[in-house]
User: Fold these one by one.
Assistant:
Number 1:
Amino acid sequence: MRKTAEGIISVLRGVFFVGFTVQGILGLMWMAGNFTKRQSLKTDSGLLYPLILKIAEGMGKIFHIPYFCIVYVLQIAAAAWAVWLFLKVFQIFEERFWLRIWSVTVILTNFMTTQCLLALLPNAFLASGVLIFCALTFRIKKQGNSADTGKNIILLCFVWIVLTGLSGEYLVFALLLLPASFLILYGKKMLWTVFAGLTVTAVLGLGFGMEFWEASFSRFTWNTFFYGGQEVPGFVRDVLSEEELFSLQLYADVIPAETIPAIESRLGEKEARKFFRDSIKYAWMNSKTVILHDIAWDLLGYTVSPIIVGLQLKGEGFRSLSTRNYELMERENPVLTRFYVNYEICWARALLAAGLLWMVLCFAVTGMNGGREAVFFCGLSGAVEAVWYTFQGAGIMDYKQTIVAVMFWEILCCALIDRERGTDKEREKS
């Protein structure tokens, strides 16, 4: 049984290496062809990213180059360093310099990641910050009470501040990552810490005023009586006009951008909260199955994004913002973009099947040789992100928000390749 498993793993390792290498080549070609093209995607940003753009504009005037190229360089450099640090902290491809370079390349050349790296939006910096945040958390655990622990804690807090400056939601989202990290690093002893951290997170989330109810309102109502065909209740028609209801049927992202402000201005904060609660209750009482079905689809969308995006681009699956992102990506070099994206979607399907088989063989037969921490860390951190964005609203699944989860999947694959190489070397020595 063991020899058979080792033979299968050797084949899978070769498949992984070839498949990821093709991905890296296609990604580098796409980035080379689009580096001088300005790409702006719709997204929310905090205070820090506009400041970065202003600084880049000033540097562009001084050096007589397009300012967005400077931003692209900064985003690529930050992402490359963040991935390198993560691999280093988890000792993936330790003492294998060129394989680590290869790993950084393939992790940054997934089509969703490359689009964010060459776009004027904060998602690339946010993904880099999350990787650094997780790497520092694990490094603190490894160091224990050493002299550098205090420095790393200060650096961890600084990264948290930067993430919050890029997007206000990370003030809470980072708090969710931290207890998840402790759960992995310290096991059952930290369950009370995790519980306390989640409780604090919930309190802070509610403390953000209307945001909790806004997200719940979108999550529970858009796919029921706004888009799903259910009759709109009378108390909603009393607040929203027919034109506003028609707009809601077309675009889910109208809810946070236009509908919520309109309701707040007409009813005031206290009455608006009551309106949101009544709407949520009405939707849940009449459409539980639809709501749970769409939540499950969104969870899949944020967990295995390339596969779900492939369905969405064919008009299958569920409503999201993915097709809008792809249309912008395809404007330059459409032939290469189509081939690149189609390859990625097919490779993701093969990768999921092969990766699950490999993990089963590793855990059940051959052993992981110390790679469990990286696997669990990536898996749980990706799950936290998937749950977080799923409950931000319905119909607004956006693969720009999933690049960290995609990076975690590919880091996990690199960890499998490396740990199996380590196992082979140890067998040869014995």
Number 2:
Amino acid sequence: MGSLLGYNRLAETAEQTMFDRGQVGRNLATGQDGPNEPTSNWAYGGETICAVDDDPKSETEDGAEAAIVDAIVRLPRDTEIDVDDRFKWTKTHGIALGVPQEYRVISQPRRGPSALTAELKLITGNTEN
């Protein structure tokens, strides 16, 4: 088992290679619609450093269906993000994207010794996907 100092150094090194920026959208359950389906809104926090791989070539299990992963985001280890949340990619290498890319988190994020990773599905049109 590594020391806390060792993990902190790993995290610092990982963060030095995160050249993108994004925002985590926390899921706020807001009630139910007509057929008693839950409705949600997402509260986006401030920008955080990250590294987005938008060509990961992998799949993940999303409930009973296989979902193609559109992106994988690597975030600082202490970032709070959950499978019910969203992620908005806003800048790459310091340059603002013309239109920020919004994703939903499609699998439970994994916290490693240096960073947290989450698999993402691009949201197009319908924000409830």
Number 3:
Amino acid sequence: MTSENVDNSVSELFKYGLVGSVTTGDNTQFVFVIESLSFLIMFVILYGNIIHRHFCNAADYTFIRIGNRWLWYIRECVHLLIVAMFYSVIYLLVKFSIAINISSYKCDVQAIKYFFLFLGWTCCLNLIFTLLINMFALMRGTNFSMIIFSIVVVILVSLAIATTTNNVASYINPLSINMELFPKAKLVYLLGATGIIGGVFGGYISKYDIGVK
């Protein structure tokens, strides 16, 4: 995995500051490797319990007052979305500023495109994993959910590195990016996955027995 021979443009410095790359022959695959997932790890540490915590203390009293759990859940998701968006913007602005300061060139159009693509990707990844952690925490407890999160991330990173020549695997894996083939399609895929996971979690909450801890 390398970022050697990268040109000094803002777009390339910004991109390689966010992801690692694996080169196989003429094919270069970009991967969210462990060291580039600090934004995700920090986010799930901060918000991995944001929904589950409501079920830990006085849940019966809280949800009797709420009435419609779906509306409550949607409000929680909107709040999480706003936080994830703000968090991602701050994280990417820091990386973008570093790239501009290091580069010998002015900010280019491609760098702006990368910024918004990565904004969508990082925001979706934060939402996907945070929702999953909250759901598993509700099912089996916080410790279990964090262990599963750690295992899944290691597996996804390993698969992303090992399947660089497989376009289907690269598309399905949320931590693998092919900048040439489907960067925008990958964003649509992640948005869809976020919606599906959010819907499944909402359905689970709507039927969840408050008496179960």
